[in-house]
Amino acid sequence: MPLSSSDFRQRYPAFGDTVEYPPGSVELYIELAYDALNKRRFTDKWLDFAAGLYTAHMLTLDGAQGGAQGGAQGADSLSGLVQSANVDSVSVTFDTASVVDMNAGHWNETTYGRRYYRLLRMFGAGPVHVLPRGQPRVPGFHHG
C-alpha cells in the first residue's frame, strides 16, 4: 500500500503543518516519487521509505525557494567531519567530501536527498559476475 499523505506527515513531523506544506504538494511529490522509483528493485517497505525521502527532499527544496516558510527551513545545512577549528573569533571548517557524492547533483542539497541517493545506489548496485566463454551457464550470472 503506497505511502499516504498522513503517513508521510507522521514519519516526517517537520512537514506536519498543512498550511506551510499543503496536502496537494505532499500528494504530488508522493505520486512523483512512486513514478520515479523502480518498483522491481524494492520491497514495499523500502519503496515507501524511498518515496518518503524523495517527498521530504522536494518539499525542503520548495521551502528553500520560498514555497514553504517553516518546518524544514528550506535546504538544510551541509556538514561533515571537522577539518579545522579556531577558538578566537570562532571559525570551523568542515570536510563536506565525506558526506557528498559528487554525482548526486541536487540530491546533495538536503539530508533527505543524500539519504535517498544512497538508498538508490544501495538497491541499484549489486554484484555482476562475468564468466569466461565456454563456462557452464549459471542462473543469475551474466554470460559474456
Molecular structure report:
By secondary structure, the chain is of the alpha+beta class. The protein has four helices and four strands. The protein has one domain (5-75, 106-143). The chain has a two-stranded antiparallel ribbon. A two-stranded parallel sheet has the order 3-4.
Q: What general outline do the C-alpha atoms trace?
A: flat
Total of domains = 1
Helix content: 25-40%
Output the radius of gyration: 20 Å
Give the N-terminus to C-terminus distance in angstroms: 39 Å
Describe how the helices and strands are arranged.
Blueprint: H1 5-11, H2 23-36, H3 44-64, E1 81-86, E2 91-95, H4 111-124, E3 130-131, E4 142-143
Parallel strand pairs: 3-4
Antiparallel strand pairs: 1-2
Helix pairs in contact: 2-3, 3-4
Features:
144 residues; alpha+beta; two-stranded antiparallel sheet; two-stranded parallel sheet; 10% strand; flat
In a nutshell, what does this entry contain?
The protein is α+β, with helices and mostly antiparallel strands. The chain has helices at 5-11, 23-36, 44-64, 111-124; strands at residues 81-86, 91-95, 130-131, 142-143. It starts with a helix and ends with a strand.
